[in-house]
Specification:
Blueprint: H1 2-45, H2 50-53
Length: about 70
């Protein structure tokens, strides 16, 4: 009976470690996204420049270009 209980504990421990790996992976992904959002926020506020933050500067689009006609 003791051996059976030990086997049950081993199986439970093995199954629980699989869930921990998934949680750790999700937490790592959330941390990366949070760091990226923080860097972008700092750049938008002007606290750091895109060059020092390691963020690629995005091309701004102001709309369609208007052509002036010669009189």
């Amino acid at each position: 009976k003791i051996s059976l209980n030990r086997a049950k504990v081993r199986v439970a421990a093995d199954l629980s470690s699989e869930g921990i790996v998934d949680i750790e992976r999700e937490q790592a992904a959330e941390k990366v996204l949070a760091d990226q959002a923080l860097k972008q926020f700092e750049v938008e506020l002007g606290l750091v420049t895109p060059e020092t933050a390691g963020v690629a500067d995005e091309a701004k689009q102001l709309g369609a270009a208007k052509q002036t006609e010669a009189l």
